[in-house]
Every structure is written in C-alpha cells, then in structure tokens.
Structure of SAM-dependent methyltransferase:
Amino acid sequence: MISDPYAELGRDYARSRRPDPRIAATVTAALGDARSVVNVGAGAGSYEPEDRSVVAVEPSRRMIGQRPAAAAPAVQACAEGLPFPDRAFDVGLAVLTVHHWTDVTAGLAELRRVSRRQVIVTWDQEVFARFWLVRDYLPEIAEHESRLACLDRVVEELSAAGETPSVTPLPVPSNCVDGFLGAYWRRPEAYLSERVRAGMSGVALLDQNVVAAAVGRLRADLADGHWHRRHVGLLGRTELDLGYRLVTT
C-alpha cells in the first residue's frame, strides 16, 4: 500500500497550486520536440503540456482525485518503481517533487530508465535561504530543507549516472499564480493566510506553533510599515530569482 502524506497536506492543491503561464512556457520549451512525456510526482496536473501524449504518475490518491477531468491519465505509483518499460517516453518531467521522494537515487534512476531526456524543476537551497520569509521569519524552513534532495543532489545524481545536466534559473514573477512557497515574495500579506500556507509543504510540515509565531511577527511588521521600509527595493521588481532551477539533460 502506498503511503499518502498528501491525504491532508494536499486537500486544496487544485485551487492553491495552479500553473503559472510564464513558468509553464519555460517548462514546455524545455521539453523540446518530445512527443511523449511521463510526469512523475504529477500532483493535480500542473505544468503538463496539452499538446503531447502525457502519462502522469502520482502516489497520492488525494492528489489524483483533484486532477481535472480533461487531464492526462494518471497511474498511482512511486518514482522509485515506475511501471513502464525502458525508454517508453521521450521526456521524464518532475516538477518540485524530487525532494519528496524516499529514495532519490532510485527515483532518478527510474526516471532515466523510462525516458530519453529529463526535465526537472527543483531549487538551490543556498539561494532560497536568503529569501526574506526564510531569513527573517522562518529560518526553520532552511533547516528542514537542508535535509532534502534539491538542486545539488539532483545534479550530483545525474552527473554520476553519466549525464551532463544543464541548470537554468527560473525566476518567479511578482504576480505568480502558482502558490508555491516563494510565489508571494512581493505580496507578503498572502503569507498571513492559513489557506495559502496550507499549499506550501515547506511551511505546512513545520511545527505550526513556530509558524504561528512567525506569522505574528510578519503581521506586526506589515502593520507598522517595517516590512515595506526594509524591502522597498522589491516593490518595483517584476520577477525575482529565489533559487528555483530548471535542470535538463
């Protein structure tokens, strides 16, 4: 039986984690001329191309249940054991999912086994730790994420397997519609919302007493203008590099 950590964590993902069209365009461009795509850790279907043959792989029944009726067919399985023959797909896609895999070495080996090329979205932990939400309010996020497999691990594993991965920054638009953790860097009031935070595993998996205290400090800093005075340089920006990275082979 597949363990489902998203039975609670993923209750509202279809609403809070909608694909941002600018990020989607970058991901789609990275697929190149691929005709067939396997989307591993597919969740509710964000960033799946609509103009190619796609099969989604998702371990959480809760997440599969939130996929739109018109979405690609989904198989309930884990990255570490993909139920497909070798080289069954042109591209293996994995968007903000590798850090959730229980065995990253096995998962990436499986992704390489079933696809000719790989397109992976992850993040640089060192860059992300400088994000104001993490640095000033919730350093516990960086502490927790230091144990996760992110950019360095992905590049290390792919390189060890004989690949030459290419890493491209994926800046976050100031009005990003996808509610991942860094999406609201210029809209700090959003982090006060419990519903918004529920769609961010990096926050939702922390001690919620710690989160509540941090949110209280942020609320106070917004109320007295301290946040805006300190981060006035962000207010005119249209995008920001928070460490999100596109890795392709």
